[in-house]
Every structure is written in C-alpha cells, then in structure tokens.
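Slide 14.
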Amino acid sequence: MVLRHLQPSFTGGEISPALQARTEASAYHTWLKSAKNMWIHPQGGISNRPGTHYLGSAKYANQSARLIAFPITQEEAYVIEAGAQYFRFYTAQGAVQNSQGSVLEIATPYSAQEVSQVQTAQYNHTLYVAHPHHPLHRLIRTGLGQFTWEEVPLSYGPFQPVNTDPARQMRVYPQTSTVQSQGVASSLTFEPLNYPNLMVYAYFNDTWFYASDGFGLNLGEIAQYFNNAFGSRGLRAQVQGAILTLTSAAEDGGEWNGVNLVLEYRSHFNGPADLTVTQTLSGGENAGTQTVAQAGRYILESSSSYFTPQHVGGRFCVVHTVPAQEQTGTLGYESVSAAIQTAGDWTLRTDGEWTGTLHVEASADLGQTWKTVKILSRSSGDDNFYTLGNLSDGENLFYVRLRSCQISGEAAYELGAESFIQRGVVRVLGYVSATQVLAAAERAFGSEEWTSQWAQGSFSPAAGYPACVFFFQDRLGLAATQEEKQTLWFSKTGNFTDFGRARDTRLATDALSVRLGGTRLSAIQSVLVGSRLLIFTSGSEWTLSCNGTFSLDSLVLEQQSECGSGGVAPVWAGSRALFVSAHGSCVRDFHYEYLSASYTGDDLTLRAAHLFANQRIVQLAYTQQPGPWVWCVMQDGSLRSLTYLPQQSVYAWTHHQTQGQVISMCVLPGASAEELWLLVKRAGGVYIEKLGARTPLSSTQIASFLDSSVSFYGQSAQTQISGLAHLEGQTVHALADGHVVTGLTVQNGAVTLPYAAKNVQVGLAYQSALCTLPLGGAWAGRKQRFIAVQLHVLESRGGKIGVEETRLTELVQRTHEAYNT
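Slide 15: predicted structure.
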C-alpha cells in the first residue's frame, strides 16, 4: 500500500532530540531534526543561507575585537572595528581610508579584553561609549569619513548619597604652600583556584619564580618562593586561608601598578598551559611628588584617612550653609569694597554726596575673575540708589562687590544678601595623603570650615564608571557603577553633560537618579529604550515610565519578573524585547500583555535546547528585513538563527557554521534590507565580512554562496583572479559565469580558473543540509520504504537528497525542463 506524507512547512524549526518522539504534537509536521546553514522563512519555506563577502582584515590576527554599528543616514553608515586601544572604520564599500591610504584609525583606552564589555548609545552624529573601567567617551562624526574622540565633559555630578557620619568631615581651602605626596602600596588580593590534577607555574613581572613539585595548589609555597625572590625589593606575599595577597612598599607603590602575577596550570611540563590566570597589582602611588601652590588650586582635606590614589579624577560635593551677608563702608576715588557671598540675589543701598559711576561686579570662581553686572551713575543733586539684582543662576555661588570709577566725593554703601545653602563641587587633581588631595573648584564652595555634609562623586576610578549608556526623554542616561550597581542617573533635560540640580527646589529639568529596590538587589546589566525603559539586572527585570513630564514626581518604577539577564545587550524584535538569561544559554522575550496588564515573556530556546547546551550566547542581533531573524553568536564561534514571528506563532531555530569562528556581529540599515556584518576568525586571520543578500536573481551568474568571498566583474574574460591574500594557501571554490569550479588553491593572493570568465566569485565552500524527522502519526514505528520524494522549489539550482547522509542522490536539472519548474 502506497502512503503519502506531506510536510507543508518548516516553521517549527530544528528541535531538541528530547522532543523528537512527540509524534502526537500538533506541530510535529513542521519540525526538523537538523537544519545547518539554512534559514526558515516566515511563510513556511526554508532556504540555504547566502555566503559572506570579504571587506577587510582586522588589525590584529590574534587578539579579540568586536563590531559596532554607527549609522548616520541610510546612505552613510559605518561599522567600527573595536580592538585593543583602537577603533577602525568600514562602510559597505570597504575600509574608510586616511590621507596616507591606510585604514582610518583612532586611539581608544579599551584593551582587547575590555571591548566586549563596551556599551554604546547614539544621538544624531554622536556615539556615546560606556565601559565600567573607563570614563564615558563619545565619538563624533564631524564630516564624511571624519571623526573626533573625546571624554564626555560631565559636570556638577552625579554624587553618591550624602555622608551620614557626623564624625567624618571634610573641608576645602586654597593651597598656599608646596605639598609633597605620600606613598601608597600597590596591592593584589585574590583567591586562586585549585585543580588537583594540574601542577602550577608562577611568574611575576614576566619572571618565573615557582614550579610545584606535584599536582594541586600550595599557596604557602607560592608565597614563600615569592618572598625569597622579590622580598629584597619591598614586595611581600601573605596567605590567609585560601586568599593570596601581594603588596609593594609604599614609597614606590606607583611603579608596581599594572605588574602581573601569572599562574599557569599544567598537566605536562612542556607545551602550552592548560589554563592561565593573570592578576594585576593596582592602587599604588610613589612618594615625594611635589606640587607648587598656584591660583585656582585647593586642598580637599578629610578628618579621617579616606583618600586613595583612585580618587584622582573624581569629584566631591561639600555642603555649607552660608549666613546672611552684609558689607558696609565708604568708597572714594577708584576703590573696591569687600565682597559678599550670594546665591544670586543681592541688594545695594548708597548714601552720601558723590558723583560718577559705581560698578557692581560678580565672580563665579571664588574671586579669581570678575565681571561687571550693573552700572550706577549719579550726577550732582540726584537721589542715591536702592537697587537689587539677580544673577539668574539656581546652583552657583557668587562673590559680589562694588567698585568706584573716578567718583568725586565719598559714596557710602550697604551691600547685602540672604542666607543660602551652597553645594560646592571640586574635582580631584592629585593625591597627597590619606587625608589630603589636590583639587580644582568646579562649583564654588561656601566656606573653608569643616562640614559633615559631603558626598563622593558617583564616577571615578575609586567608585567605578557607568557600564550602561542610553537616551530617554531628551536626557543622557547612565547606569551601574562598581559601587552603585542598582542606580540609574539622568542628566538635565536637553543638556547631556550637566548632572546638577537647583539649590532650594527641584526643577522638572534637573538631573536626577533612581535606585532599584525589590527583593533581589542585582546589578543592572543593560537598559533598553522604548516608550518606557526596560531595565535588565542579573536577577530581575524592571520597567521605568513617567506620567507626564519626566521628573522624580512622575516616575513609575516597577519590577516585572525575576528571570535575570547576563551581560549580552538586549535587542528589540518588532514590539518585543529579547534578552539573554543570566547563565547565557537561553533567549527570552519580554513584552506587555494587555490581558494581565503586566510584562511577561517566554523561553524561546525551549524547543531547541540542544543548540545551546553547554554553550553560552555572547551576542544578539535582529534583522527585520529580510527575516524577521534573530541572530546569536555562540561562545564556540558558531551562529544560531531564529525566525521570530510571534503573531503567527513562528519560532524556528537553525544553526550555522563556517570555516572559522564568528567573534562578533552588528546590523546596519541597507537600501532594501538590513545588513548583517560579521567578524570572523579564520585560518589566515580575523576578517570583516558581510552576509550576502538572498534575493530572487535573474541570472545565476552573480549568485554567491561562498564565505569570505571576493567578486570580480570584468569587461573582458579573465583566468587570473586576484585579491585573495586573506585566503592564502586555502582550498577555495569559484562560481565562474554561473558554473561551479572546485579544488582551487590560493597562491600569491590569486587563483587560476580552468577557463576565462567575466563574472566570478571566489571563496570558501560550506554545506547547507536539511534533515526531516521520521514520519509520525500512523507511520510512527513502522518499517518504511521510500520510493519517491517530491520537492517544491523556488529560485533553486541543484542539491542532493537521500534517506542517509552518506547515500545522497544529486538533483540534476534536466534539459527539457524549464528553469525553476
């Protein structure tokens, strides 16, 4: 009896072996056993993925890097190759070149290991770049193919919560004499891992000093050998339980910053180490650095040992209550009154018989510079003045004084101002000791007296820097430092560098900060911007919205779930957010459910768990057109793709492989579809490549299904195809005027075709394979003999089919059949 089985669609995608026996499932007829280098269309069909086009080689072949999209317009879009202390730039036409003809490059502070942690946010032609170990920077596109790179000049904050210990006080006063810094020891404290089946070699400052006699970790021996080797230089190792601590002498602590301790875990004496652990000393400061007193330089002093060298570059806020001010006196020919302090308002009364002009002068920098803000002129017989003024500043402190300009007679005056609270801001310039640092006044301080009302800046080497950057409601948003992992900061409205606020009230446009609460206080990992903020932490998911104008009074902060997110940046997929779980092997969606009036989501990897077992997702991307497809870069360098159309219940996974490892990816807008860019580590180096478009073609001569390929379209036919230096020595395939040529070897950056061709693509071959599940329903478990298979194809050419991978029959286009039938 001949039975027929129809698989009408593949929208179930590749499924886990744990589900393959579920023949009763209604979706069984849409599932696949395997789909390699294929993607599933939302209409139900499946096709092999296109190849990738080679666009350039990364700067280094043996260091990590990543790709960052920087689109300006649809016609002008850049991809940034971010590597060890550099950014390089590419467009769809290839590398952006400098005036010397080399790839345009700018210097950055990020190491090869740090670039994977960089988060970005774009505002018009500016890309803001955040990293937890470095100050916020921005990349500005100043012209076509022209860029500038700078640290973002944040001002007036933000700050940590105000000190609550009345015994811990600070004060600021002018530096009047030369100061000499004290030394601080550089140190390192960590808990080394113990592998009982591995021996340990130890190196310090690139010098070998220890090799274990047997397997396992002996911290006491390591400390003893370290002290014997380096103790004469002031270095010391100590062991407390399972913790190893290295310290330098205080006098030359700065010289040991950045020096590494390396532990090699080995199963054999020769060959590479099985595992290498590197730790770095930090926090040191050399003794004896002298700083001469100069104008505008101040001493910030603490009543207790508080400061470290890591406070340099950070800010402190010192709060004083300034009492009401009044200065009285008499001015004659070209003289100046004493100054009063004011928050902006001032009053002036004059008396006496005088003629000429008086100038009211104000200083916003503690008397360093002065500017005339009002001129009073009096002629003989005129009334004296009673006037008031406002300097229109809700945050700063001003000195106000009166200057006479060639007056006749004597002018009596009363100059006054009301009491106010002043939040002075100083920026730390240098380390002196645990109780003193050098500082510059960013906002004037109200007194030189001690105060317990002070706060440390939220961003500094000591406190850490924001790990997340975003824009919301015309504000720059930052989140998650080392010391404030659950805090978000927002700049003033329309002023992305100002994190200050008004003195006696809180304006709707003021900068503000928000701290998460809840039962699980986990570090913020990333923030996604939509109609409201979606905040992903390592243990929970939150939303932040506002009722009306965005201010503290209108904020609505709600915890939505407790799934937890890893360090992979989430993406929007239509109206839904997708994020990677904290353990890194699961993709979840996150969206608003109107029936429950709350946010909810599902595990999208549940049916294809085998594709993520013992693996970790390192990056997510989404392409709407063509697609919609979600892309995952895996830890082993392979790719996963998900056809994601939740409105039609389409969740179809496939997996992708190439002759190499995918390190990073990004998505750029294109003319007709979005472009997926890949950074791929291959045998010859690390390459920037772009996934080709799989659109209907009128001619098979320009189709390309080769990876890292180079195309040649000539006016005349050629047999020598060059430009293949990146594939030197490798076996490649070619499509020459529509015909497949195999077994070519790249020599001297070129291949020789067996015949001349005008339209040629040369690259690495890959295999696309589709395997269906065993027949279900009435056929499940029965012996089966296949006598025929019918395929419906579109825009296809050739292939192989069979019941076993080792016994495949080639699909040959017969001469009497029209193409595509």
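Speaker note: The first helix runs from residue 219 to 230.
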